[in-house]
């Protein structure tokens, strides 16, 4: 199944453990429980066909906790056809298909260093989807200062056989602007790209600095949106 999918976002979802599929003419939906800390429905196809598949089959089956997400225009069109849904957010899928050739730094962290990662996230990125020990989070890479203090981290999380995935990118505020997170992300990207088609991440549109940093690493950007059931 996975090798027949040409949409990287859909491929990433399709390879998650326990993924469920609905395929109809002009539409495909993949359901993933607890993917990036949400129950998600990756959608692909023609808006009318996708809306019909969600309305008639998928949403009655999976329930209201599952959130459709996909290309921004598709999600907006689907929501316009389904009054039970509302656009919940707009963000970006960013990916790269070749190794990064910019500054690389950092290393994989040991298990006894993960409490330091959790503390850094608690202080400076508490809304991170990736957390040490969280579902789908495999390992963490980090960059330390001369005093051993953890300065920047990134997780290898929700990675699949075809798509490596970055999450939880965090830098200590007093060292931001030095390219430290970019260097650690370059390290992890090159570790994950081997044997895979691409490395990807989800980015916040509003974080211009992060988007610019990943563009410098060669990541392309695709606008996404997510929907949720009307409260």
Q: What is the overall pLDDT average?
A: 95
In what order do the strands lie side by side in the largest sheet? 1-2-3-4-11-5-10-9-8-7-6
For the largest beta-sheet, the strand count, sense and barrel status come to: 11 strands, mixed
List unreliable stretches of 5+ residues.
none
* Helical proportion, percent range: 25-40%
Total helices: the number is: 6
Distance between the termini: 35 Å
Q: Element order, helices and strands?
A: HEEEHEHEEHEEEHEHE
Overall 3D form: elongated
Give the DSSP E fraction (strand runs of 2 or more residues). 35-45%
In total, the number of strands is 11
Structural class: alpha+beta
Assembly context of the chains: single chain
Using only C-alpha atoms, the radius of gyration works out to 18 Å
Layout: helices, strands, pairs:
Elements: H1 8-14, E1 20-24, E2 27-35, E3 38-45, H2 47-62, E4 66-71, H3 72-81, E5 85-96, E6 107-108, H4 114-124, E7 137-144, E8 150-157, E9 163-171, H5 180-193, E10 198-203, H6 208-216, E11 220-229
Helix pairs in contact: 2-3
